[in-house]
Each structure stands twice: as structure tokens, then as C-alpha cells.
Amino acid sequence: MEPEISVIVSTYNATEWLEKVIVGYQQQLFKNFEIIIADDGSTAETAELIDSYVKTSFFEITHVWHEDKGFRKTEILNKAIQKSNAEYLLFTDGDCIPRNDFLQVHMYKREKGFFLSGGYFKLPLPISQFISKEDIVTQRCFEISWLLKNGLAKSIKNLKIRSKGKKANILNRITPTKPTWNGHNASGWKEDIIAANGFDMRMQYGGEDRELGERLFNSGIKSKQIRYSAVCLHLDHKRGYVKPEMIAKNKAIRKETKAGKLTETNYGIKQLEA
Question: Do residues 34 and 4 lie in contact, with contact meaning Cβ atoms separated by under 8 Å?
Fold first, then answer.
């Protein structure tokens, strides 16, 4: 049976976090999916971890890897898109543990002519490290009482994890946060993403996901806000790969996309095939 959704998970040398993420997908209420792991040049340790879960997971896992030549996330994401088998694609990161209804929400909310914009619930490093497989299997790591007990500070932001059902839908409608394409939690139709030629491979860290969303907007695709409905826990980590020149370059490309109302990049999936 063909998967109804392909989950594309980006990763780079973060096996401790990636394992927790895979365990999160093993708990999903919606079962007909595959995972494509977009690996931006990790060492053999990541491949060994993935192989162990290929043997024990009810869903298919495909490992897409290329050599480490610096930050090339957009390129490996395009390669992962090429390997996907579903008509609907969800993009997330290897540091985001999904709640068990995560895929169910994306599948229920999907609609032709739209992409879905989710967020994440950011955890401090000590809790990120403390969460165990058992905490994910039991789903207690998604309970606000458990998080507060284990060091989470009280905050208005905790509404993101406390809210479900009608309350979450209301918060989705009234939040001032714009429903942009967010690489850690966004989904859309494969045909729309292919028409946009996927990710712009000139781009490195900083808005590279948003730029794809901006091209989708330019083509007439709209967005839906689901940040309070599709919940994932973001595990904290350092970002030593971020450089100011990356941010500046990406801002210039995004400015060009907006000014020219571009719907397709000349540096995407088609160029991989050339």
C-alpha cells in the first residue's frame, strides 16, 4: 500500500535527538506513512542508528545521504523529495519529537490549494536531554504537569502544549503569528512543491524554508495555521554552523523572490536532474 504522507526529516550528526524523534513517529495514531531521512552528511553513526530502526518500525524508513561539504540542507531536502512516494509531504527536523496525533492533524487539516503551517514547543537543554524513550512512548513528555515538574518555566507560551480540540482551533485563528512555511513543521501537496522546483539550493541557514513558502504564495497557494494543533517538542542544541554571511545571502534571495513574485527557483530539483 502506498503511503498517504511522506515525512521528510532533516538531520546532521545528532543521533541522540534523531532516535527520540523516530520513537515519536512509532507512537503515531495515523499509521499509513513513510519517513525519508534527509541527512546532510552525517557520519556512519547516524546510518547505524537508522538501520536499527528500519528493522523495528512499522513504517518504511529511507535514508538519503550526501557527502559533508558544509551546510547543504536545501540540496538534501530536494533529494529526499525525489525519493518520496506519497502525494502529500510533511517537512520537519531531526530535533522535533511529534505528539502521537501529529500526523493525524496534518492529514485531517490538509486541503487542496493550501499548505499547513505548524510550530514547535521549544524545550530547554536539560529537559531535552532528560526525556527518555519511555517518556515518549507513554506521551507523558507532552503533559504540562510533567514538564513543569522537570524544570520547565511557567509561561504564556505553554498554551501551545496545553491546548487541544476547540481551544487549539480558536488559538490558531487568533494568534498574531503568520502561517508561513516553517521547516520544522509544515506540509503541502507534492505537486505544488514540485511546481515550485523545491528548495532553492543556493540558500543555507536562515529563512531557506520561508522562501519556498513565499514562492507557493506567489503561485496562489494559501496557508492554514495549525501551530496549536500539530504539536512537536523542539530539543535544544547549539547551532555552530550559522554564519552572518549565510543570513545576508538568504535575505537577498528572499527579497528577489518577493520583488519578482517568483513562483519557481532556477536552483532546485530540476537542476539536480540536469
Answer: no
pLDDT tens string 224-254:
999 999 999 999 977 666 778 888 899 999 9
Q: Which CATH superfamily is domain 5-273 in?
A: Spore Coat Polysaccharide Biosynthesis Protein SpsA; Chain A (3.90.550.10)
Residue with grid cell 520513537, as numbered in its chain: 23
The Cα–Cα gap between 222 and 213 comes to 9
CA distance 253 to 238: 25
Report how far residue 36's alpha carbon sits from residue 63's, in angstroms, rounded to the nearest whole number: 6
| pLDDT tens by residue, 182-196 | 999 999 999 999 999
Indicate the Cα dihedral angle 105, 94, 9, 36, nearest 10°: -120
In the three-class reduction of DSSP (H, G, I as helix; E, B as strand; rest coil), residue 196 is classed as coil
Cα separation, 251 vs 131, in Å, equals 36
**C-alpha grid cell, residue 21:** 524523534
d(CA 83, CA 37): 10
Cβ contacts of 20 within 8 Å, gap of 6 or more: 97, 131, 133, 136, 235
CA–CA distance from 117 to each of 40, 42, 50, 161, 229 (Å)? 24, 28, 27, 16, 10
The enclosing H or E element of 123 equals none
pTM for this one?
0.96
The string over 52-91, giving b where at least 16 C-beta atoms fall within 10 Å of a residue's C-beta and e elsewhere, is: ebeeeeebebbbbbeeeeebbbbbbbbbbbeebebebbbb
